[in-house]
Design a protein that fits this description.
The protein has helices at residues 2-10, 17-24, 82-87, 108-117, 119-145, 148-158, 160-165, 168-175, 179-192, and strands at residues 28-32, 37-39, 48-53, 55-61, 67-74, 78-79, 94-97, 101-106. It is an alpha+beta fold. The longest helix has 27 residues, at 119-145. The N and C termini lie far apart (42 Å).
């Protein structure tokens, strides 16, 4: 599990073997069964996590009871409710395992310890935050300017393995459309082939 984390970190910054070992020692491994929650709305998120096995969905339920999926997190992805974690306020999100999963968790206290004792870690999280901000901005622009069909095609091209692991309902909730509309899109695409 830790080897996945080390490889992910090495893709962003350079640390000595000892620094890498020291940082990784701050994480706790947690196993989550399929359909179990890592975080529920109303709880304060006390972790940032790195997924080493499985699949999670991060979602919100709106006032009308509709599920809105912000993102999916599969192996080698980071997961948290950054608002709740940073501001220590109740979450508006749910984080649920879609498969039996394993995640390495770091607390705010341990992360602050790393910032103080391993200065490069602050750079790591800055780089990751910038990348997530770019991805969020692109997603917002896509949602505002592209059709549902375009968004579906891009999602399926960008995440071909992920699309095989998700239900139509989950994909539709991510795209912000109904399951029926997604079925219509898939049928239309199939007719074109």
């Amino acid at each position: 599990m830790i080897e996945f984390l080390k490889k992910n970190i090495a893709g962003h910054i350079s640390l000595s073997d000892q620094e890498l070992t020291d940082f990784c020692a701050l994480f706790q491994n947690k196993s989550i069964k399929k359909k179990a929650f890592l975080l529920k709305e109303g709880e304060v998120c006390k972790f940032e996590g790195f997924v080493t096995k499985g699949l999670f969905r991060v979602y919100h339920i709106d006032a009308n009871g509709f599920e809105q999926i912000l993102y999916f997190a599969t192996e080698n992805w980071w997961i948290t409710d950054i608002d709740s974690f940073t501001n220590e306020k109740p979450s508006q999100l749910f984080i649920q395992a879609l498969d039996d999963s394993e995640v390495l968790l770091i607390t705010k206290k341990e992360k602050e310890f790393a910032y103080q004792n391993l200065p490069e870690i602050e750079k790591l999280f800055r780089i990751m935050t910038q990348k997530k901000h770019v991805a969020l901005q692109r997603r917002m622009i896509d949602n505002l300017s592209k059709t549902a069909e375009q968004r579906y095609l891009e999602f399926s091209e960008k995440y071909p393995q992920l699309i095989l692991r998700l239900s139509n309902i989950q994909i539709a909730a991510y795209l912000g459309i109904t399951n029926v509309f997604l079925s219509n899109i898939r049928h239309k695409i199939a007719k074109k082939k």
